[in-house]
Design brief:
The protein contains six helices and eight strands; from the N terminus they run E-E-H-E-H-H-H-H-E-E-E-H-E-E. It is α+β, with helices and mostly antiparallel strands and about 170 residues long. Strands 1-2 form a two-stranded antiparallel ribbon. It has a two-stranded antiparallel ribbon with strand order 3-6.
Length: about 170
Amino acid sequence: MGRILVDADTGEVGGYLKTGDRILRAESIAHLKKQAKGAVRGRRFVRIDEEEGRLIAKELNAYERAVLFQLQFYVSYESGLIRYPNGREIGFNDVVEMTGLAKATVTSAISGLVAKDILYKGKNSKRTQYYMNPWIASKGVVPNSTLKDMFGNYRIRSKGNTRWKDLPNDK
């Protein structure tokens, strides 16, 4: 049985609340409208886990941080693939160009990020692909299960160094 809405002045039934229905007070509506005015519409955002980011940054050298900083802006929704907005995957030479670092430095930085399970380096039939660990930076709400397989051994610093694959599915 649902909840009944009763007019306080007349005592008449004005309607029913169904499961999941909510009542918004005028103050709540005003607050939501104020929040919406401050939102930046049409902009794209990357989600960064603050706590995890602060902890992992301590373990990175300056070049690894530079590469990570550049790549975080190119994470694709839910797949974690590093690519341009037009869909073209970002390769090694792209990373060299965008960071301005020497090829040997980028090689070392990427190797370090892969060894720390921050990036995953794989190959498709044509080129090398890079994926971002969603505990560091992501877009979308829920990472796909393939990312959990790729980064399952990542030790989540903000969760007591628990491996991702050892967390309960709902965390």
